[in-house]
Design brief:
The protein is α+β, with helices and mostly antiparallel strands. It has a four-stranded antiparallel beta sheet with strand order 2-3-1-4, covered by helices on one side. Helix 1 packs across helix 2.
Length: about 120
């Protein structure tokens, strides 16, 4: 599994228009932005993170989480028992005191996540 290191800035979407945040992010030097319903996720080159953060702040946009992350190059679709097992594994890894970050390249549909959450 291959990952790319990226800068990541999270902005709460409440009260903000996508186009406004997207324009400010691009002008500040961001590479990409995703709308995750409740938040906007802005991705940058690792070395550009501080510059993009400053540009977003200068544009008057309140920032949430800012830091470096790993983004998978490709994703694997999971479903059924396999998806449930992977979710349990990730949760177990995250619960370990010695583990600081868990990165994965799986994709599970919302319907499948709901089924797993219900325990059926």
């Amino acid at each position: 599994v291959a990952f790319n290191r990226r800068g990541r800035i999270v902005v709460a979407a409440e009260g903000l228009e996508f186009d406004t945040v997207f324009e400010a992010a691009l002008e500040a030097g961001a590479e990409d932005m995703e709308d995750n319903e409740e938040e906007f996720e802005i991705l940058t080159a690792p070395g550009e993170l501080d510059e993009v953060r400053r540009g977003m702040e200068e544009a008057g946009i309140e920032l949430g989480e800012v830091g470096l992350t790993m983004v998978p190059i490709s994703a694997v679709e999971l479903g059924g028992d396999e998806a449930a097992r992977v979710i349990r594994l990730v949760e177990a890894l995250e619960d370990l005191d010695d583990v600081q970050h868990v990165y994965a390249n799986f994709d599970i549909s919302d319907e499948e996540m709901d089924r797993i959450a219900e325990g059926t």
